[in-house]
């Protein structure tokens, strides 16, 4: 079950990288001086990616917990 723990840690790390990417993407849009409507559109495009990255991160953490419980 050690493999499940390490695989879960890797999946969780990939989700974390996705979350950090979303943060930088929105931060770049905020500092670029876009109008309010353009900023909303930029954020609206990032929201599904942010949700997906959060889901992947949670899935990885669940894999880690299951691997610890079974090991």
The topology string of helices and strands comes to HH
- The biggest beta sheet, please? none
**Residue-averaged pLDDT:** 95
Number of separate structural domains: 1
CA-based gyration radius: 16 Å
Spans of at least 5 consecutive residues whose pLDDT stays below 50 are: none
Helix content: over 70%
Number of helices: 2
Q: How far is it from the N-terminal to the C-terminal residue, by CA? A: 5 Å
Specify the overall morphology.
rod-shaped
The tally of beta strands, per DSSP, is 0
Our estimate of the beta-strand percent is: under 5%
Derived from helix and strand composition plus strand pairing, the structural class reads: mainly alpha
Structure description:
The protein is mainly α. It has one domain (2-70). Helix content is 92%, strand content 0%. The protein has 2 helices and no strands. The protein has helices at residues 2-31, 36-70. Helix 1 (2-31) packs antiparallel against helix 2.
Secondary structure layout plus pairing:
Elements: H1 2-31, H2 36-70
Helix pairs in contact: 1-2
């Amino acid at each position: 079950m050690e493999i499940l723990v390490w695989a879960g840690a890797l999946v969780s790390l990939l989700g974390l990288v996705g979350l950090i990417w979303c943060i930088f993407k929105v931060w770049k849009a905020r500092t670029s001086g876009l109008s309010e409507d353009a900023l909303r559109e930029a954020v609206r495009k990032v929201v599904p990616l942010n949700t997906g990255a959060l889901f992947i991160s949670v899935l990885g953490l669940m894999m880690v917990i299951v691997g610890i419980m079974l090991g």
